[in-house]
């Protein structure tokens, strides 16, 4: 049932040529096929999200430390980019989790 909904959404995204959505749906579909059972086993996704949150918090601390220590602009920019990437990864994991839920 969940797989069917994902396949429908994937088909729609492909018809619109939405590459980002296609990539996310393909990842969600792979996760549903790999991890979901009739009982909705989500413990692996929980761990993945927790790890992404920890990574984002680490990157945030690194950025604040660089700013507080008056590091050079290039180093601060690098830290900022790493934080943005960590946030994007967290959002992708959250989207995958949401799509893997029974009513997702």
Annotation keywords:
104 residues, mainly alpha
Structure, described:
Helix 1 (2-16) runs antiparallel to helix 2 and helix 3 runs antiparallel to helix 4. The protein is mainly alpha-helical and 104 residues long. It is elongated, with a radius of gyration of 17 Å. It has helices spanning 2-16, 19-35, 43-68, 73-100. It starts with a helix and ends with a helix.
Mean pLDDT: 85
* Sheet of most strands: none
Using the alpha-carbon principal axes, give the shape: elongated
Tally of structural domains: 1
Fraction in beta strands? under 5%
- The end-to-end distance, rounded to whole angstroms, is 11 Å
**What's the alpha carbon Rg, rounded to whole Å?**
17 Å
| Secondary-structure class | mainly alpha
Number of strands: 0
Low-confidence stretches: none
Structure, briefly:
By secondary structure, the chain is mainly α.
What is the topological layout?
Layout: H1 2-16, H2 19-35, H3 43-68, H4 73-100
Helix pairs in contact: 1-2, 2-4, 3-4
């Amino acid at each position: 049932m969940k797989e069917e909904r994902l396949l429908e959404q994937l088909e729609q995204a492909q018809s619109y040529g939405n590459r980002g959505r296609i990539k996310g749906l393909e990842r969600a579909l792979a996760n549903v096929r790999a991890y979901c059972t009739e009982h909705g086993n989500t413990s692996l996704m929980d761990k993945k999200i927790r790890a992404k949150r920890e990574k984002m918090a680490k990157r945030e601390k690194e950025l604040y430390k660089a700013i507080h220590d008056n590091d050079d602009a290039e180093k601060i920019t690098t830290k900022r980019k790493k934080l943005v990437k960590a946030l994007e990864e967290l959002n992708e994991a959250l989207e995958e989790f949401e799509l893997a839920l029974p009513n997702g």
